[in-house]
């Protein structure tokens, strides 16, 4: 893994780059390449969290719109999820395409960012479209809900 590390892609001062080269060449720091690769993951976690939040806001707003038209809770949830799913998939597939481009042409931290972004997007799609829907269906079927307050 350390053989594939391209130190020229890391933007650092000359002194820091020299120190990193010495450490990598002497292999005193075994997991260094992985840490460079995953440097963008912290920022990406925040982006993924924001996208997941946005997905749920889209769903809840669509359900709220359907409730305003006088639909039953079951009808509002069904219509809300149906209307929001296409929007969620459109936005997230676009982000996955951008992450694929970043991974293809990026190196080091950029690739780490792309991988983490992709995992976050796939997880947020799954939780928003599948898990949230299962929770709504369970509550509506089990408790025979007559009114939803969103």
Description:
- This protein has 150 residues and is mainly α.
- The chain folds into 2 domains: 1-36, no CATH class; 38-143.
- The protein contains 5 helices and no strands.
- It has helices spanning 14-26, 32-37, 41-68, 73-105, 109-143.
- Helix 4 (73-105) runs antiparallel to helix 5 (109-143).
- It is elongated, with a radius of gyration of 22 Å.
- It starts with 13 loop residues before the first helix and ends in a 7-residue tail after the last helix.
- The relative contact order is 0.14.
- Mean pLDDT is 81; it is low at 1-13.
How far is the N terminus from the C terminus? 50 Å
Count of DSSP helices?
5
Biggest sheet, in brief? none
Question: How many domains?
Answer: 2
In helices, the fraction of residues equals: over 70%
Global structural class: mainly alpha
- Approximate strand percentage: under 5%
Mean pLDDT: 81
Radius of gyration: 22 Å
Strand segment count: 0
- Unreliable runs: 1-13
* SSE topology string: HHHHH
Which shape, going by the Cα principal axes?
A: elongated
Spell out the blueprint of helices and strands.
Layout: H1 14-26, H2 32-37, H3 41-68, H4 73-105, H5 109-143
Provide the descriptors you would attach to this structure in a database record:
2 domains; mainly alpha; disordered N terminus; 150 residues; single chain; 77% helix
Summarize the structure.
This protein is mostly helical. It folds into 2 domains: 36 residues, no CATH class; 106 residues.
């Amino acid at each position: 893994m350390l053989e594939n590390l391209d130190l020229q892609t890391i933007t650092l001062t000359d002194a820091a780059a020299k120190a990193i080269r010495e450490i990598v060449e002497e292999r005193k720091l075994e997991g260094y390449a992985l840490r460079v690769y995953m440097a963008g993951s912290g920022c990406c976690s925040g982006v993924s969290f924001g996208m997941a939040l946005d997905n749920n806001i889209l769903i809840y707003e669509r359900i709220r719109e359907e409730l305003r038209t006088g639909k039953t809770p079951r009808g509002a949830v069904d219509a809300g999820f149906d209307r929001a799913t296409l929007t969620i998939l459109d936005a997230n597939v676009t982000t996955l395409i951008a992450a694929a481009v970043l991974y293809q042409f990026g190196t080091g931290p950029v690739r780490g960012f792309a991988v983490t972004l992709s995992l976050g997007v796939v997880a947020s799609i799954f939780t928003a479209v599948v898990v949230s829907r299962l929770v709504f269906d369970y509550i509506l079927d089990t408790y025979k809900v007559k009114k939803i307050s969103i």
